[in-house]
Amino acid sequence: MTTRNYQNRQNFGKSKAAKVFIDSYYKQLIEATKERTKRQSQLEKEMTGLTEKEAKKKALAAHQAESEHMRLSRIKISVKDFVNVRLIGRGAFGEVRVVRKKLWPGETGPEKVMAMKIMNKDFMIQKNQLAHARAERDAMVEHNDPGVVKLFYSFQDTRFLYFVMEYLPGGDLMNLLIKREILSENDTKFYIAELVSAVHAIHQRGYIHRDLKPDNILIAADGHLKLSDFGLCTSSSESHLSSFYTATVPKDFDKSQIKSRERKASMLRRNSWNRLRKAMSYSTVGTSNYMAPEVLLEKGYGPEIDWWSVGVILYECLVGYAPFSCEDTTETCMMILDWRNSLEFPEEPELTDEAIDLVMSLLCEQHDRISYDEIVKHPWFDGIDWTNIRNTKAPWIPELKDETDTQNFDDFEDDNVDFFF
């Protein structure tokens, strides 16, 4: 590479970084202004009807709180502001830890328990994952929905990216399914309704999750679900564009090439699926079980690919295994593409006609797949109060010893405590 080409490449990278920084800066500035205006409006409402003395006292307290908020927002945060509690997750590019945030000067109250995602920047650059990291960060920042995991802080040092999020001690939906194998239709209805609401919330913001699966659906202390892991999400933002999944299906795929295969009994498939669940959750590329056919064929797609994934999760909750599960990944992809012949409903457990109809309305051709408005009106959801679903008692509430309880997460050998903290 010539000196000029090297310099051009460096300048190109710097200009891209500057554009992303400027876009992010002004987006945050606009959001902060909106929040400040909202707080001011709320203060004016609360001051209505107060005496002059009471109004001045309340205005002074609000001014002091606003000043403190601005002061804390200017503090530069680093990993040294946190105390490690325990490692609860490990992936291809880093790990997730439960941490306690130390109190800053002037702060009062107990140290807050949070989850910290730590990502190796060198690995992410090598695997072309920077756009995905940016999209994940932006998705959590821009969503203030109760069904989406909240991001408190994001920062970096010379080697790592850090996302500090709310800690959800109930574990994930995958672990709940492993414990119970199958869920009742009533319990499933609750979880799928919350999942549908959360997916709709991110769609309204212009995002597509693209990686919906039980291990990316976390359970809060009150038993309610929240979406996490936006590492593969995308939007129309230029900084979020990058290569997506690598299809494992031949380009010249022909359904006639699929070999006839002997169908395994429902219980055999469920046992096989339970053996595979953990192994797949730790793989670098994840699992193809939840991918829509149009993704595997590298066709154009939109938010409807998330509804296919919701259909797979619905089936898995009710039946005990994913509808296209196979020990061979390529055969799984073949089954997804041949979904008309591959999608079967076992005799046990017996599902209601409404449940089967909803599954088939989601696991179907791209242009036939039902939308959010059609999903919420589906007969299977009769009785669901979509407006107050999060005020409803959850079917399962985790029993926790304290706010740092990690019993609902897998055990990992922790050999890096002193390295990060």
Q: Return the CATH class of the domain at 173-391.
A: Mainly Alpha
Spatially, the strands of the biggest sheet line up as 1-2-3-5-4
What is the averaged pLDDT score? 81
Given the helix and strand composition, which structural class is it?
Answer: alpha+beta
Poorly predicted regions are 5-12, 236-248, 278-286
Assigned CATH architecture of the domain at 173-391: Orthogonal Bundle
| Oligomeric composition of the shown chains | single chain
Please describe what this structure looks like.
The protein is of the alpha+beta class. Among the domains are: 36-68; 173-391, Transferase(Phosphotransferase), domain 1 (Orthogonal Bundle). The protein is 43% helix and 10% strand. It contains 14 helices and seven strands. The strands form two sheets. Strands 1-2-3-5-4 form a five-stranded antiparallel beta sheet. The protein has a two-stranded antiparallel ribbon with strand order 6-7. A hairpin with a 5-residue loop joins strand 6 (217-219) and strand 7. Helix 6 (185-204) runs antiparallel to helix 9 (304-319) and helix 9 (304-319) packs antiparallel against helix 12 (353-362). The model is unreliable at 5-12, 236-248 and 278-286 (pLDDT under 50).
